[in-house]
Amino acid sequence: MHGETTALDVLSLPDLVESHLGSRPRTELWRWSHLSTVLALELADRRRVVAKIRPFTDRLTGCCRTHRLMWLAGLPCAEPLGDPVRVGSRIVTMETLVDDGTAIDVAPRSSARSAAELARFVSTAPSVTEAGSLGPPPPWVWWNHDQGATWPFPDDQAEDLNQHPGPDWLDDAATRVRERLFAHDLGAPVVGHCDWEAQNIIWKGGTLHAVHDWDSIVALPEIVVAGAAAAVHAVVGGRPGEATIPHTSQFLHAYQEARQLPWTAADHQAGWAAGLWVHCFNAKKATRRSDGAAAVARLAGHIEERLRLAGA
């Protein structure tokens, strides 16, 4: 999925919303665009809703189904409103606008708390079979992709990262991480969330307030889900960074405890490897941005320690 949603989609949205929800938008509260266009709207009947427009892929069907099942199960999240709507090559979903108010925590108050809520998420989630199609996963967790070479295609940059070698330490680290994960028995997949950043997991008063970004639902081995989340759970949108090494360790141990999993030392290494793949992929993309040098340098500063923890 490359490029942003077209203006034509947004201009035709009021008719679609009225047809789908029985009331026409009267005020646009805010708008955000990247891979998707997301609009918060107040309708004529005073309901406040969010509409999201993005290119259709098969995996979004499973993502939408999981969102509804999780809302029905009582997980804090926006209520999906009706079924997804296909409009040509696009898919449109609508949900209630979560009233975040003003007392929102910038990030989870502890890594252990964030890990416990991810454990709750996975415990509440439907089975992989019930969720339906969730593949392929987004590239930042698709270490075992089928595209050849080291790096999968980004979903937000129209270029092949493999055509831009270097820095050598980064390409080498990604190769070692992939080899480590391929060599480990990662176990059966579970349904989880692969973008467990603070910007997507909203906290209020130290309590989980709402899970967002339901397009990031995946069916992956549990150690990969936990490892990826451990790597990014403290990241806030617009602020480059990653969870520190101590916070990553705290997250992995707290997740294992919350789920009562018999993870071995080798399993923990695989969790570190899964998280390091996320860091490596993000850093590789950063090499292609004019403002990416700081992100690459930050990972370079502790890459050897993270590789050691990953057993790679």
UniProtKB/TrEMBL annotation:
Q: Matching InterPro entries, A to Z?
A: Kinase-like_dom_sf (IPR011009)
The protein depicted here goes by the name: Uncharacterized protein
What is the native source organism of this protein? Answer: Streptomyces paromomycinus
